[in-house]
Amino acid sequence: MLILYAAVSGVALTVALWLAGDYGRTRAYEGLKTRARSAADLNATVLRSELEKHRSIPFILSTDPDVEAALTSRDPGKVELLDRKFEGLAEGTRASVIYLLDADGRTLAASNWKTTTSFVGNSYRFRPYYSLAVDKGSAEYFALGTVSRRPGLYISRRVDGPAGVLGIVVVKLEFDQVEAGWGRSDMPSYVTEERGIVLITSNQNWRFMTETPLSAGDAASIRASLQFGEAPLRTLPINKVRDDTFGGHPAQVVAARLPDAKQSGNFLKIEAPVRTTGWQLHLLVPAADAVAGRVSEARLSLGLVLVPILGLGAVLLYRRERTSALAAEAAAARIELEHHVEVRTHDLRQANERLEWEIGERQRTENKLHTLMEDLSQANRLASLGQITAGVAHEINQPVAAIRAYADNARAFLDRDDKMHVQDNLAMIASLTDRIGTITDGLRSFSRKGTGEVGPVSSMEAIEGALLLLGSRIRAQSTSIECHYPIGDLVVSANRTRLEQVLVNLVQNALDATRDSVDGSIHIRLDVAGDEVELSVSDNGPGIPQHVLNTLFTPFRTAKANGLGLGLVISNDIVIDLGGRIDVKRIQERETCFTVVLRRYQ
């Protein structure tokens, strides 16, 4: 009987340990999937933010009067002025190089004009970013630099003149800092384009390798275009092990060999699209150690429970057999068995207490990790300049359309020799061009890198500048905005660009709070309190919860579903740097009022 029991127990224990291992493996992959998805979304958001920030540069420069003047006059003085302007702009925006091509594709001015690798005088007519910009107005093209031999994304935009194309503004964006940030993580990351070729990667040896093998014809065509230089376009050392589903989401387990590894290891592969591009971000999470740990933990937990139970069953069976043989021997055996059970129970109790403590510690660690991942997963669009630029472009379209209409009317009146109406139409055209100039001046001022210098700043002008930048969004939303100014302007000690940045953040937050309100309203007020000036922005939105209010200026703490929790932190740092402070209070549990307190300029 004992032999049969032992055989059955052995089979049961083997099956149970296998099931426990499978359960532990599944739980391990579920945890890795959650961690990988958050990291992949964050990496994709950071990459998209970097792209959006630099996409606005050629858009702004394509309308710059200095660019048009250099293209039309070819005056050496104006070209050198543009060289210096590009040089300062590249340094401030961390762009690799900014340069201007004439209509024939030859470089007229460049930010690297003083270097030995200057682009000035070189022809890039053969580059697709030139021909695409000429045909479509703008283009984005990732390639290896023909001079620098460094990879990067070329963002181009056409400069139009009265007679047609004047030139092309090009900004080259390199991703060294993004790749360095990814490289500090234990999770390799890389980005592929539509054909599966690796463009950006935390592992430099994988650059310009492919997800799947390319045909000989496609590889030869790519090399002939010089897009990736003489890269061999080999296939990545990543092989799919299996497709699986963990936590209800598709995932893929792959075997990959890193350059510094002696052998291949298993990774959980996650993919995330980089929105506004055709790129795909791939992230590999090391799985071997985590899976092995969770499998061992599950099996150990099961063994600590099942082995004593099976042992106790064996002892009871043995006790019954011995009891039927001899009562005296059974009594002695019972006493001895009870002693052994007591000892084993004591050991089991200690083991269970130790296991409960370890489980509690692990649970607390997982809770902290979960909280961190939730904070990181709230990362949202950081490229506010790109959003503002899109709105301003919409604002400019309206006066441009009106200018065209007035010009057509003026031509008709001129044919009739109606000079009075011609003059009226020309006056309206001049007024509309002034309006466009006001809008672009506001955008150019806001996009310029602040020097940090503090001086006299008009409070009313700063408020009007912020409202101008947000004009498109304000008109698209039903929220009303009322400004309350005292008699006379109030001049504060601040920096105009940085103060506008703070006001833009506060007004955007107020617009977000009143987005779904049918009677939403925002009040902007100027008050004087001794030697200080108070700029208040209040809204009648749903209000800020108390637990969020207590950590309002703590990084990565936000009540917005898609917020990152950095806007108010940056605004608070700016105001403190200007020698002021930001106060916030709730009014009647619904209204929220932010007050920027600055020194009055004497």
From TrEMBL:
Please state the protein's primary subcellular location. membrane
**Spans through the membrane:** none
Q: Which residues form the Histidine kinase domain?
A: 391-602
Q: What class of enzyme is it?
A: transferase
Q: Which is an annotated Pfam family here? A: HATPase_c
The record's annotation in InterPro entries points to:
HATPase_C_sf, HATPase_dom, His_kinase_dom, HisK_dim/P_dom, HisK_dim/P_sf, Sensor-like_sf, Sig_transdc_His_kin-like_C, Sig_transdc_His_kinase_DctB
Q: Give the residues annotated as coiled coil.
A: 348-382
Under the GO molecular function aspect, what terms does this record hold? ATP binding; phosphorelay sensor kinase activity
Supply the alphabetized keyword list.
ATP-binding, Cell membrane, Coiled coil, Kinase, Membrane, Nucleotide-binding, Phosphoprotein, Transferase, Transmembrane, Transmembrane helix, Two-component regulatory system
Catalytic activity from the UniProt record: ATP + protein L-histidine = ADP + protein N-phospho-L-histidine
**Localization, UniProt:** Cell membrane
Provide the E.C. number(s) assigned to this enzyme.
2.7.13.3
Membrane topology term: Multi-pass membrane protein
Annotated Gene Ontology cellular components are:
plasma membrane
The keyword Membrane belongs to this UniProt entry's keyword annotation:
yes
Return the protein name.
histidine kinase
State the species of origin: Bradyrhizobium sediminis
Source lineage: Bacteria, Pseudomonadati, Pseudomonadota, Alphaproteobacteria, Hyphomicrobiales
